[in-house]
Design brief:
227 residues
Length: 227
């Protein structure tokens, strides 16, 4: 069965161009022209990924992502924000809202498709790894308080070991991520290609057991992985 992508944009031309390209790439595409309609479609259609504009009537992209993330079943749902806004603070707002990728307009459809493929592949791996450990946990008789206590202890032990396991380049990428920089911006500063930066980001997500960039940034700041 084809993977389902929800495209949200109040500009009809943008919606159709993205939709046509993705359908030719083998995806099933559903569309919404504002965040309010998109929120209802997420619950009704359970998409595998969302591509959304930020500036829209009724409900903007930031708020759409926040509301989607509030629902437990959609916490791992990949989200790409598309916007003409390119200021650092606006990118930070995007990642704080819970998006996985911030792609500035104008963009190439080929680049968007590549980003979608990467996020979908990673999402399927993460969900698979997330599902099986939790099934094992259901078979144990550990109480909730004991699990919380053990988790807190393991976190205290894990963070220093994790920091020492990061390469110098991973630490550099992580530091720039916390400033809301895009792959292209990070690559420019570190003299790396955006694809190479994405590989470092994927490695950081794997090592920290986080599912998207927003969670990665929060994890890094909470556990002192960045200054």
């Amino acid at each position: 069965m084809a993977l389902k992508i929800l495209v949200v944009d109040d500009d009809l031309g943008t919606r159709l161009s993205i939709s046509d390209y993705l359908e030719l790439s083998g995806y099933l595409v559903i569309m919404a022209d504002d965040g309010q309609e998109a929120l209802a479609m997420v619950e009704e259609n359970n998409p595998d990924l969302i591509v959304t504009d930020i500036v829209m009537p009724r409900l903007n992209g930031y708020e759409l992502v926040r509301r989607v993330r509030q629902k437990a079943e959609f916490r791992l749902l990949p989200v790409i924000l598309l916007t003409a806004r390119t200021k650092t603070q606006e990118r930070i707002l995007g990642y704080q809202s819970g998006c996985d990728l911030y792609l500035p307009k104008p963009f190439e459809l080929e680049e968007l498709a590549a980003a979608i493929r990467n996020l979908l592949e990673r999402s399927q791996i993460i969900q698979s790894e997330y599902r099986f450990p939790h099934q094992d946990n259901l078979e144990t008789s550990i109480t909730g308080k004991l699990r919380d206590s053990n988790h807190a202890l393991s976190t205290q032990i894990h963070a220093p070991k994790l920091l020492s396991s990061l390469t110098t380049r991973e630490q550099e990428v992580l530091e720039l991520l916390t400033h809301g920089l895009s792959n292209a911006d990070i690559g420019h500063q570190l003299h790396l290609s955006p694809r190479t930066v994405e590989k470092y980001v994927s490695s950081l997500l794997r090592k920290t057991l986080t599912s998207n960039r927003a969670e990665l940034v929060r994890f890094a700041m909470k556990h002192g992985l960045v200054e």
